[in-house]
Amino acid sequence: MSLTWPLALTLLALVPIAVWAYLVLDRRRREEAGRFGNPALLPGLVTAEPGRRRFVPPLIVLAALIVLAVGLARPHVVRSVPKEEATVVLVMDTSRSMEAKDVQPSRMAAARKSAETFLDNVPDRFRVAIVSFSTKAEVVLPPTADRDAARAALGQLRLGTGTAIGDAIARSLSLVAPRPASGGEPATPPTPASILLLSDGAQTAGGVTPLDAARRAAQLKVPVSTIALGTRDATVEVPLPGGLKQVVTVPPDPQTLRRVAQATGGRFFEAPTAADLDQVYRELGSRLGQERRSVEVTSVVAGFGAVLLLVAGGISSAWFRRAL
Q1: CA end-to-end span of the chain, whole Å?
Q2: Which residues are CB-contacts of 287 (< 8 A; sequence separation ≥ 6)?
Q3: What is each CA distance from 110 to 9, 95, 104, 266, in whole angstroms?
Q4: Per-residue pLDDT reduced to its tens digit, 256-275
Q5: How far is CA 319 from CA 279, 293, 305, 312, 314, in A?
Q6: Euclidean distance between CA atoms 241 and 161, whole angstroms
Q7: Order of strands, edge to edge, in the sheet holding 87-93?
Q8: Closest Cα partner for 91 from 133, 59, 119?
Q9: What are the tens digits of pLDDT across the range 52-63?
Q10: Do residues 48 and 317 lie in contact, with contact meaning Cβ atoms separated by under 8 Å?
Q11: What does the H/E/C string look like for the chain?
Q12: Residue 205 in contact with residue 135, Cβ under 8 Å?
C-alpha cells in the first residue's frame, strides 16, 4: 500500500492524547459521583455495573479515528484491473521444424489451433497482429480488432526454412512502436502492447539476435512472453539433392526463449504437447486482459471508519441508553 499524503498520518499522534483524555474524564466522573453519594451503596441501587464494557464503545471510536486518519492519507493499493485497450502481437514460428509430429497432429497444426483458442479468450477490445517467421519475419496481419481476419490470417501461414527469432521480435516492435518520421528511435507504444512468441527451435537465420531484440523490447516496455513448443527428440525429413531425404533432430531452445521473457518482463512456457500448448494460450488470453494498477481506496477506508463510528454509537445506546 502507498499513500498520497503520508503527512496525514501525523494525526495518529492525537490517539494517545485522546486515550489519556478519556481516562482522565472517566476518573473525574467517578470522583464527582462520589461527592453526591456513598459508592458503597451503589450495588444496592443498580443490578450490575457496566464494568469493562464501558470501554468497548470508546475503543471502537478510537479504531474508527485511526482508520479515518489513514483515509485522509489517500491510500492506494496495487491490484488487477481490466485493461481498457491493448495490442497483442502473435509471433508464429513457420520454420521447417514445425512439420514435426511430436505434438499431434503436427507442431504447426497444434500451434494454429491453440492460437485460435487464444483469440477466443483475449478481450474483444484488444487489437491483434500476427507475425510469422522462418528465414525472415513477415507481417501477416497488421493490428486489428477483427477476429475473423485474424483467424483467416492464421489459416494462411505456410512453412519455410530457417528460424529468425530476433528479426521476428524486431518486426513485431515496429508494429506497436513505429519509428517517428524523422527516423529516430521508436517511442513507447501509446497503448499497452505485448508480444506472444511461439518457437520450436533455436535461431538459425536473421541479422538481429534474440537477446538484442529483447533488450530493445525492454527499453520500449513491451513484454515478450515465449513458448517453447515440442520435445527434444522430435525429427523432420529434410529433402536433399537427388531425391534423398535426411532425418534431422529439431529440439526447441528453451534457454534462449526463457532469457528473452526474463529480459522483457514476460513469461516463459514449455509446451511439449498440444494440450499443454492449448492451456498456455488460454491462460495468456485471460491474463493479458488484466493489468496491475495502483488504485485509490480512500472511499473504502473512509466508509469503514464511518461504519465503526455507527457501531460504537449503537453499542453505547443499547448497553448504556446514552450516546457516546
Answers
A1: 32
A2: none
A3: 57, 14, 7, 22
A4: 999 999 999 999 999 999 99
A5: 58, 45, 21, 11, 9
A6: 16
A7: 137-144, 127-133, 87-93, 193-199, 224-229, 268-271
A8: 133
A9: 677 788 888 888
A10: no
A11: CEECCHHHHHHHHHHHHHHHHHHHHHHHHHHHHHHCCCHHHHHHHCCCCCHHHHHHHHHHHHHHHHHHHHHHCCEEEEEEEECCCCEEEEEEECCHHHHCCCCCCCHHHHHHHHHHHHHHHCCCCCEEEEEEECCCEEEEEEEECCHHHHHHHHHCCCCCCCCCHHHHHHHHHHHHCCCCCCCCCCCCCCCCEEEEEEECCCCCCCCCCHHHHHHHHHHCCCCEEEEEECCCCCEEEEECHHHCEEEEECCCCHHHHHHHHHHHCCCEEEECCHHHHHHHHHHHHHHCCEEEEEEECHHHHHHHHHHHHHHHHHHHHHHHCCCC
A12: yes
CA angle 81-171-213, nearest 5°?
A: 80
Distance CA 238, CA 222 (A): 36
| Cis geometry, peptide bond prior to residue 105 (ω within 30 degrees of 0) | yes
CA atoms within 13 A on the CB side of 161: 3
Report the residue count for the chain. Answer: 324
Cross-strand pairs, 35: none
- The three cell numbers of residue 27 are 476518573
> What whole-number distance in Å separates Cα of residue 210 and Cα of residue 2?
37
Q: How far is CA 292 from the centre of its chain?
A: 5
Q: Are strands 75-82 and 290-296 parallel, antiparallel or unpaired?
A: antiparallel
Backbone angles phi, psi at 45, to 5 degrees: -100, -30
d(CA 324, CA 308): 13
- Percent pLDDT > 70 in the chain is 83
Cell numbers representing residue 282 in the block: 488460454
Please write the tens of the pLDDT for every residue from 73-124.
Answer: 888 877 655 555 789 999 999 999 999 999 999 999 999 999 998 998 888 8
